[in-house]
């Protein structure tokens, strides 16, 4: 479906076309007409399907046709990184319009806080906020949302996972009852349906490719002992040509240690974690987006908050505890119909968690052979998911990323499954696209 068919405001459409976008994604095709019709909506779509554009475009179109635009729309996001990404997309999409936006999140300096206060007093079209900092402004009486028309909850499942339920309900108490509420979630557990039942009125429902990785992701797994992980990862990264690599680890401490290890081995890598200051985190993300830092290491918070095109390889140093987090991790590659590779390192204690992931995505992931010089891999028994259903695992030695080193030394180069980068870019802006989270 062509974006022209939505009859958007000409200035908004001009921005879309200037960015090189012509056709809506499936979630956009279904969600945009419903939001334009001012329906409440609960939408479930996997990462990378264009769900941010699915709510931004119709909301911005309605704002452009509204006379009273004082604090018109509130978008709640679980992390500052996601809030910043959404704001970047608002700025890109509003390039030819006069729509204004403001991000509200913790961790800024005094200057940023004063800028927030001034913008709140004057009023903006769209406020993008994390729950905690927004509550402090609402409680102080500085921010008034009594004229709000649209409430959007993005990554609602992650907000609940992070314990924001009470904060969300308190924020809603400051809002007018007559409003449009839109809830986007990558998953749809019972707690999300309960929240939707509380906040939404007669909502429409959309579900697009729930809990399935994008088809363009080449998923692989290595069975390893913990002592083999760093050695394997080092070899994989040395012997293949991936311009942009994202590594996920289970804890902040492990992220820090991996950053030190890989920098010590000569890799240009950065560790992204909550102990960094806001400016440091923003600088690291900017360097990664612009391909000046090829390797970024982080926890699952990063899987929801990063919006970077052209990530060619995602590595799970640890198997995520929640199978849904696996979807979000590997969803950072193969976005917007491109291709990419996702590799997971599975030790003995993580076998059951990995089996549960395979059960969720209804796919047996290829087991790759460990290079002989790294020693023997753990023996894989009939791994079973928590349901007890036996699964057969297949190996794919013909698709390995390493080659056995000759006795004279040297390393292998090249790799199969090269990544096609997304070419869409915003006019005069970096890293923005209406289809990305």
From TrEMBL:
Keyword terms, alphabetized: ATP-binding, Helicase, Hydrolase, Nucleotide-binding
The keyword Signal appears for this protein: no
Domain Helicase ATP-binding residues, every copy: 32-206
A GO term for molecular function: hydrolase activity
Chain ranges of the DEAD-box RNA helicase Q domain: 1-29
Alphabetical list of SMART domains matching this protein: DEXDc, HELICc
Motif (Q motif): 1-29
InterPro entries: DEAD/DEAH_box_helicase_dom, DEAD/DEAH_RhlB, DEAD_box_RNA_helicase, Helicase_ATP-bd, Helicase_C-like, P-loop_NTPase, RNA-helicase_DEAD-box_CS, RNA_helicase_DEAD_Q_motif
Pfam family, one: DEAD
Domain Helicase C-terminal: 232-376
Basic residues: bias regions: 391-407
Stretches with biased composition (Low complexity): 408-422
Alphabetical list of SUPFAM superfamilies matching this protein: P-loop containing nucleoside triphosphate hydrolases (SSF52540)
Region (Disordered) residue spans: 369-437
Domain of life: Bacteria
GO CC annotation, single: cytosol
Record family assignment: Belongs to the DEAD box helicase family.
Protein name in the entry: Superfamily II DNA/RNA helicase
């Amino acid at each position: 479906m062509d974006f022209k068919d939505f009859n958007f405001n000409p200035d908004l459409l001009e921005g879309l076309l200037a960015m090189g976008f012509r056709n809506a994604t499936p979630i956009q095709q279904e969600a945009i007409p419903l939001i334009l019709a001012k329906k409440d909506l609960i939408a479930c779509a996997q990462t990378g399907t264009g769900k941010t554009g699915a709510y931004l475009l119709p909301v911005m179109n309605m704002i452009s046709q509204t006379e009273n635009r004082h604090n018109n729309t509130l978008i709640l996001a679980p992390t500052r990184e996601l809030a910043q990404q959404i704001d970047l997309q608002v700025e890109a999409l509003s390039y030819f319009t006069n729509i204004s936006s403001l991000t509200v999140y913790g961790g800024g300096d005094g200057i940023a806080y004063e800028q927030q206060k001034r913008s709140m007093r004057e009023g903006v079209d769209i406020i993008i906020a994390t729950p905690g900092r927004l509550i402090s402004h609402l409680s102080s009486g500085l921010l008034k949302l009594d004229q709000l028309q649209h409430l959007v909850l993005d990554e609602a499942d992650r907000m609940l996972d992070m314990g924001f339920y009470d904060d969300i309900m308190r924020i809603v108490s400051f809002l007018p009852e007559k409003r449009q509420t839109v809830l986007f979630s990558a998953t749809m557990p019972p707690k999300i349906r309960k929240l939707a039942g509380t906040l939404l009125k007669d909502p429409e429902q959309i579900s697009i490719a729930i809990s399935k990785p994008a088809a363009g992701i080449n998923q692989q797994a290595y069975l390893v002992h913990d002592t083999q992980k760093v050695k394997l990862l080092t070899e994989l990264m040395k012997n293949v040509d991936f311009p942009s690599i994202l590594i996920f680890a289970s804890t902040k401490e492990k992220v820090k240690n991996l950053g030190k290890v890989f920098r010590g081995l000569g890799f240009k890598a950065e560790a992204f974690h909550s102990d960094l200051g806001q400016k440091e985190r923003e600088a690291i993300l900017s360097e990664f987006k612009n391909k000046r830092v090829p390797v970024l290491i982080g926890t699952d918070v990063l899987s929801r908050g990063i919006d970077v095109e052209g990530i060619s390889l995602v590595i799970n140093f640890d198997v995520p505890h929640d199978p849904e987090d696996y979807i979000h991790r590997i969803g950072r590659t193969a976005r917007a119909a491109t291709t990419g590779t996702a590799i997971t390192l599975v030790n003995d204690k993580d076998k059951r968690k990995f089996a549960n992931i395979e059960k969720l995505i209804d796919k047996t992931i290829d087991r790759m052979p460990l290079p002989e010089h790294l020693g023997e891999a753990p023996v894989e028994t009939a791994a079973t998911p928590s349901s007890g259903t036996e699964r057969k695992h297949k190996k794919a030695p013909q698709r390995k990323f390493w080659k056995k080193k000759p006795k004279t030394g040297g390393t292998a180069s090249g790799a199969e499954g090269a990544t096609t980068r997304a070419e869409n870019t915003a006019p005069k802006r970096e890293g923005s696209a209406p289809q990305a989270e």
